[in-house]
Amino acid sequence: MKLLIMAFFVIWLCFAPDCLNAQTINGKISGKVVDENGRPIEGATISLIRLRDSIPVKYELTLVDGSFNIGISSSDTFFIKVTTIGMLPYQSRDIAVDVQHLLISLEPITLKIAAKTLKEVVVTSKKSFLEQKIDRTVVNVDALISNAGTTALDVLEKSPGVAIDQAGQISFHGKSGVAIYVDDKPTYLSGSDLENYLRSMPSSTLSQIELMTNPPAKYDAAGTAGIINIKTKKTKVKGFNLGISLGLRQSRYSATNNSMDFNYRKDKINVFGTFAYTFSNGFNDVDINRSYFYNAGQPSGAFAQSSYIRTKSSGYNAKLGMDLYSSENTTIGVLFNGIIRSPDQFNNSKGQLFNAAGQPDSSIISKNKELGKFKNGSANLNYKHAFKKDGPEITANLDYLAFATDNNQTFLNQSYATTGSVSMDQLNGNLPAAIHIYSAKADYSQPLASGWKLESGVKSSYTNTDNQANYFDIVNGSATPDYDNTNHFLYKEAINAGYINLNKDFKRLSIQAGLRLENTDSRGHQLGNAQKPDSAFNRNYTGLFPTLYFLYKLDTLGDNQLKMTYGRRIERPYYQDLNPFISPLDKYTFYIGNPYLRPSYSGDFELGYIYKDRISVTMTYTDIRDRSTETIEILNGYYYDRPGNIGSTKLYDLNADASFDPANWFSLELSGDVWQLRQASDFYTGTLNSHSTSFSGQAVLQFKLNKGWTLQTDGKYQNKQTDGQFTLAARGRLNIGASKTLSPRATLKLSINDLLNTNINQGLINNLYQTNASFRTLKDSRAALLTLSMRFGNAVKDQRKHNQTGAGEESDRVKE
By three-state DSSP, how is residue 123 classified? Predict the structure, then answer.
């Protein structure tokens, strides 16, 4: 705390003179865009570009009459570029804006038709892979050729600082507990459901990934590692516009990712939608080895297990929405989303038991299958009203989400003793679950005097879950209830929250400060069965979550900037993790819930440097209390997997990102992370005390050739790291790709991911009672992908963007 106070004091001494002396201006550049016949052009893109570094600082679209107005708050020299489909681009003269020249009115801008030379026009502009902002890092999905034909999960794994472990859990800069959003709306999924959902989203439907280690106060406080927001593509059209993407994936097996999006706008009505179909077809070979010891350390036995898992899943993902522009300042919208998925898994495994002398004792052959069904439907009603241009604004959202899952399991085990005797047992399970989430949210923003802006809002959400696990022992074709594993768990939760946020841009200093208050009331009820008594728990807790951001320009040009952020966050337990009953994974492995899980809290302090928006270096210190993570316990040779709280977790991280353009035909993106993780807690074996230092690096090289060809190679490497009980071995991957612009509306992409087949999850499980354990997971990560993208229609202007809906942080807390 002393270190934090000193840091605030030092930075205040640096910033205070600027705060007191800063002056802002209220400038404006206005004009009108017309064609060669003098007719106004609606929806042309106006780019305001700073002359000294050629960096775009603001974008506008022309209105119906072709006019535009660009507000400017600081003195500088600019020029503008005007672009629209079918016209040649236009660049203006240099424009100086200062206190003597506040209102700049340009002569009408005439754009010339480019149709006669369209066949020779090749689009050469591109977005950088990474963009740095005051409170987030933005990843542009289409900037990476190897993303084509993949899924949202693959795109996340290629994002800087993001890692996905052997169980599909997502971590960010070495921290688990990251909240996953889609279009500013929580996914309401976690665990295997989240993994499968992200695999059902083709990368062709994505535009950007926003990485926020310390999100602003308007976002829910959940997610001790921050928020990853996946933004989907939105077209801006008048009339009818259609996009199609067809993708084929070939590894050991064939799979496909296909999507279609449309937009239709006429007068005051805008209708839009997306439809995607994915078929995944893969494998997962898993080897687990366990060695057991007596108290004195002598071997007492061992168990080696090899599993060959085939996975198949077909799914449909659809979105349909409509906006009604009831007036110039008011918009009413509805949005519907639906997911249907059928994930199936077939597991053939062989386990060998060894005695103390290392001789085979017995073996077990398992043939297990899980046939799943997943359905999700959601409805959103949203309202937005601006009282006047650049004035107060209010938004409101009502959300309802429903999840229904059903998983039918069959565990068939044959045991063979060294004496030659054979035994067989079968366990069948049916696991239906239903989750209903209701949410209401309202936000208000108000410009204040002297350039300050106030934002505030309130939110209430209510969640009701109903989870059943019905297990039966099958003996001679007859089913008998297995009351040790059968259970019925009900959970209800209400969260009420409010926030306030203030921000202002001075001449050199930008400030943003927020405070969020959240109250949680939860009630769980385990109904029990004929042999197990029921149980219940109630919890009520309230937390304050401040956020603070400083961005300071060290020079008048703004080439060198310092940033500092601080934030406090919470991670609530997953709903099903609170379920206290046991679920079998195989004959010797069980999952157990934990009704005593506590919410975890984190404090995050960051200090960073940015050079010309191209190079950034950030130092981070994170302190997490009662972090919830996967824990493993061995009892009598049986393997129990349950969530648990780790008392103290401290993370020190140094991150650097850089982008370079050495030549017009060559660009380079680099990203690197070095972090140290320290953990200490009471544990099954007495104490858990682990320290580890890890490194992760990523590079993207892109070469633009003639005739619409682009070549790209990208790679990522992560060395050995320890987190909780798990030590993960080093791994990496190398991807190559090429794209060809067939026409201004069609692109073909071919890539090979994990060319060297080195993206393999393997490692050790530590802190087990009288046991050593290791694992190795091999998936079909090496694959060739072919994607064809086509676009039909004319992009013009002004489709309303769907920002954050009312759904809250519960998004990342649904799991099977």
Answer: coil
